[in-house]
Predict the structure of Superoxide dismutase.
Amino acid sequence: MAFTLPELPYPRNALAPHISEETLNFHYGKHHQAYVTNLNGLVEGTDLAGKSLEEVIKISAADKSKAGIFNNSAQVWNHTFYWHSMKPNGGGKPHGKVAELIERDLGGYDNFVKEFKQAGATQFGSGWAWLSYKGGKLVISKTPNAETPLTEEGTTPLMTMDVWEHAYYLDYQNRRPDYIDTFLNSLVNWDFVNQNLADAGA
């Protein structure tokens, strides 16, 4: 069964003006699609054909000879997770379980914002900023290129922010900090974060 490009959870113009339809056309329609196409070509006829996306990621992460497969499979997963980490009229202070855990584990919302911004702003080159649930606590991290907390034992990603330039350059040019501010203030899908926490048994 070949991998397919998952549907976006909203129309391509739904995040405007924060993220434009033009950006979604390129980022989702071209970049994300290319990772799917490349992955299908790389796993066809191999022992990974027929495995789930998560299985392919974990198997290829542990085998340096499968770096190309890892990069494309992880980017398919990371991007799908990123689209769901945002929603129209999102952002701002969280609610529910994640709000409680941000207070308990991260020193409150303002400190969470500070640390998450720092993770996104200091990821040199391409990569991702993450909020995850690890060892019964919230953790903020950053990963380069296609790396993902999905490969870390006992870690459940809760939401991510893409800081590859193609995520924001058409709308923000070189102003990554402005994009990060907008992501936190206007885009984060806290309902998605709370669902991931519930699925993790938090």
In short: The chain has two domains: 21-84, 96-199.
